[in-house]
Amino acid sequence: MRISDTDLKRLLLLWGKLDPTAVDEAVAMHEETKEPLLSVVISKKKLISEKELLQLYSKSVDLPFIDLIDFKIPHDIL
Fold it and tell me: Contact at 8 Å (CB) between 17 and 56?
């Protein structure tokens, strides 16, 4: 998933997933390590999973979240 740092911070705070202190700590680590904020939030600090983030994003754009991991797509459609 590609999302700007600004949009990521807005999503996390707007939907109450993280408190401002946790977001500030992640931003500080991002600035210190030069790693993308998304990587810091998901992989380094493990503040949110990628699936949770996708659910928040879908909610913010008013679209349903659909997890296709267990969905069987007929071979003839592929």
Answer: yes
* Separation CA 33–CA 10 (nearest Å): 21
**Number of CB atoms found within 10 A of residue 53's CB:** 20
Torsion from C-alpha of 38, 44, 49, 53, nearest 10 degrees: -20
10 Å Cβ neighbour count for 55? Answer: 17
Give the tens place of pLDDT for each residue, 6-43: 999 999 998 888 899 999 999 999 999 999 999 999 99
CB 9 within 8 A of CB 27: yes
Separation of alpha carbons 9 and 27, rounded Å: 9
